[in-house]
Amino acid sequence: MAAKQLQSIRGIHDGLPSEVRLWQRVEQAARNTFARYAFSEVRLPVLEPTELFVRSIGEATDIVSKEMYAFTDQGNDSICLRPEGTAGSVRAYLQGGLTRAGVQRWFYIGPMFRRERPQKGRLRQFQQIGVEMFGAHGPLEDAEVLAMAHGFLSELGIAGLHLEINSLGCAACRPAYRDALVAYLNQRTESLCGTCNDRLDKNPMRILDCKNANCQSELSGAPEMVDSLCDDCETHFSGLKAGLSALDVPYRINARIVRGLDYYNRTAFEIVTDQLGSQGTVLAGGRYDGLVSELGGPPTSAIGFAAGLERLGMLLADQADPEEAVSLVDIAMVALGESTLIYSMQQAAKLRAAGFRVVHGGGGSAKRQFKVADREGARFVVVIGEDEMQSGRLTLKTMASGEQQQLDMEELIQLIHQAS
Ligand code: ATP
Ligand code: MG
Q: With 80 as the cut, is the pLDDT of residue 122 above it?
């Protein structure tokens, strides 16, 4: 009886080569863009104390109340797999003693874990490219960070993405708005979904971005935070809009953006596509001036965002032209006869040292090795038989034209360089 094959955990996917290639394009665009804004990479732990997220994200959120992979380890410590990157960044910023080291501009790339209901573009382990900037005081910093997010996705060339912004107000103006929203929603409890009825007590602003269509239509006449901003928040929001316009970054205002996490204030934003259904948010973030002090540090203004790597990869895959599939192999070696195997491996090593991407057919019949070359998409084949080994002149076949010629190693390297 065949042994039972094990499967990965539901909602947790493998990144196989074709998908990872897409992710790497996204990562490269991020690295290029972020470097131009002088952001530095940090690599932070995947395991964190559970309390970090309870204190920062808040118990009333979906993430903390039901989505965390939290457990007690062998030492009786309560730890969890990070569901997001901001709280850990703040912890590291404080633990690293960086509060007096000037503005910190960070980015990270790595896996996050949330026990959500798996769907297309919604996984239980997913990857985020995130950015955090500590010591970012004013609306112009916000505009630059949003311009950077926009620049990053523009570099990928994905069509149909929109930047949407909102203001969440602050401790001075949000409570009154929240009361007005609750009063509005209290008259519509019957039409709201069960989750939103729960949110009404605990986290009413979260109702604004409920994915349920009924809830959304009930919200059509709801009061909007942007109409209830205090003077300081109004000035900040105007400054952001002016900054974006000055930098030619197109945006629209979306009063439904709230962000799921309690620690955001003022600027909140998303970059959305209409391609992925209710998983259409590819990048999201905002300002979180209260979080650093919440976690024991000095008052520190900050802003950040995170983009979902899998969702961006899906958009890239959708728009990829199959005709222009990139070749990953320059040269395939075809060795004819046992006696040429070692020699052909040595020639492959020389070609690799010259910078080419080389696969070795592994010997056997010429037919089989040419098949390998084809499957790998090699642009050239180098054929080595007894004669080639004796004379040192190798047979080069150009796959596109079928042309064959005999060349020594130096000529061959030159020719392929010129063809590239
Ligand atoms: P959504 O509204 O789609 O649930 P979110 O508000 O929970 O997103 P954030 O916590 O701000 O999202 O995360 C930033 C980005 O990370 C999202 O815009 C999305 O691209 C990605 N992301 C979030 N959760 C998941 C998930 N479960 N699977 C895949 N990507 C995700
Ligand atoms: Mg979510």
A: yes
Q: How far apart are CA 336 and CA 408, in angstroms?
A: 18
Contact yes or no for 176/225 (Cβ under 8 A): no
Q: Model confidence at 33, in pLDDT bands (50, 70, 90)?
A: very high
pLDDT tens column, 88-109 = 999 999 999 999 999 999 999 9
Burial of residue 175 (CB within 10 Å: 0-12, 13-18, 19+) is exposed
Q: Is the CB of 283 under 6 A from ligand 1?
A: yes
The rounded Å distance from CA 308 to ligand 1 centre is 6
- Whether the pLDDT of residue 130 is over 90: the answer is yes
**Residue 84 CA to ligand 1 centre (angstroms):** 9
Rounded CA separation 171/203 (Å) = 15
Rg (CA), the chain: 28
Query: Ligand 1: which of 259, 279, 309, 314 to mutate, judged by most atoms within 8 Å of the beta carbon?
Result: 279
Instruction: From the options 3.40.50.800, 3.30.460.80, 3.40.50.2300, 3.40.50.450, give the CATH code of 326-419.
Output: 3.40.50.800
User: The domain 17-173+229-319: what is its CATH number?
Assistant: 3.30.930.10
CA atoms 305, 310, 316, 318: torsion sign: negative
Report the relative pairing of strands 70-72 and 78-81 from DSSP bridges: antiparallel
The pTM of the full predicted model, rounded to 2 decimals, is: 0.91
Residue 321 pLDDT > 80, yes or no? no
